[in-house]
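Section handout 9: paired folding examples.
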Amino acid sequence: MTSLPRLSDLDLSALLCSRVCHDVISPVGAIANGLELMDDPENDAEMKASALDMVRSAAKSATAKLKFCRIAFGASGSAGAHVDMGEAGDIAKGFVGEEKIKLDWQVPRENRPKQDVKLLLNMLLLAIESLPRGGVITMVGEGSGFVVRAKGDRAKIKDAMVSVLEGQTDLATLDARLVQPYYARVLSEALNLKLAMAMDDDDTVVVSARAA
């Protein structure tokens, strides 16, 4: 399998850090706002109770995002470590939530090398990006690889992501948003898998990682 152009280690680590910060800044900011409302002596008991609910909800969201990012982008254990797929599924469900997208995790509960799990979670992120109005994401194992199906109203593949996956994007233009599909591509290359996105009918995007 031919390796595509690569970012430097420093650039990749910086962009991934920016991506994680982008994911968690919103709930952390909501926590700070809620605490400010609770500390304001001019707010009544009802307002403070509402602020406390905001803090609880934002803290739950921040925790879910950090747990997800720890596995999807971080070391998630020592070198050569394995990850329980059942645990990974629980973390993925916590990250996705239940409001806009429903996650159907059908990957067998078994220990898999952490690189496998990192790739699968990054495939989930690609699938989420393809559902602007929400829908259902189904995740299954397929031999040594995985298949993720994203079905929903106006499901679509973003051209910028495909360009990154196919190595057709100028790496100097990558930002905190596009570094994620780039990182997914690097993970798939390390596992000798071909990562691709394709439409299946008008409302379904398929993200696949199969033997090259």
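Moving on to protein 2 of 2.
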Amino acid sequence: MISLIIPAFNEEQRIGKSLEQIFQFCNAQTLPFEVIVVDDGSSDGTVSFIRRRFGDHSQLKIVQQPGRRGKGAAVQQGMLQARGDYVFFSDADLSVPIETLPGFLVELQSRCDIAIGSRRAPGAKIEVHQPFLRETMGRVFTSLSNFLLGTRYFDVTCGFKGFKREVARDLFTRQRLHNWSFDSEILFIARLRGYQVTEIPVSWRNEQGTKVRVWKDAAVSFLGLLQIRLNQILGKYG
């Protein structure tokens, strides 16, 4: 069984198209699947829209956070509720096409515990770039993450990642951060736990409507990297 987690915050205008593509694609596959949308305290009509438009899909589950806690918290909640043998999360805008999933699944079934999408690994293709500032800051964050946490990735923040179920449960029960640095934390814990990670080049397209607050989120994410190291020193990752 495949579980697909979609964190959502004020996605009323974008998530309908994405869910249509997801259900069309997944219904054509041979494996059973579930789609878990985790609403992170949206103030618009995201949840009511999904229920009205897709409520008849038995494979759909909606989880509502009590308030806005951050993307990391939404992904964590979905991962811990997933029932699939292989568990994925994707951004609500499908900037990485859902058709990417089978290639990740093959890697998870054959040679790795975690498969992460990369916009910067050799072979990746960016069809529509982010604004220059955001793209540059993403590169800087990945470099800082590698330097401070001792990892070696081309791209830590791409919003498409897949896990074996038991690995996902192990990692996300240990997760402590709920802001944008949670990707780095999960990959750092994976290194500590000795899991095999494969970085897969993807096609990626920037979509309008991002919820990222560039300077604020950049500062919080940098502090998050320091918090990860402190958590390690304090033995919080067990």
